[in-house]
Amino acid sequence: MESAATSFTTAFRNTAPFQEYLLQGSILDQHCEVLLHRLRGLCDNADSTPQPFNDYEAVYQLKNNLSTQQSQYILFRVREALDDKEAPCYIRYLGQAEVGDKNRHTLVRACYDVACSNNVREFLNELGFKLDHEYVSRGFVFHKGRMKAMVSKIYRMQQPGKTDQNLLEPISQSHLVELSVVAPLGQDSIGDDMKNFAEQLKPLVVLEKFDHRRLP
Question: pTM (2 decimals)?
Answer without folding.
Answer: 0.84
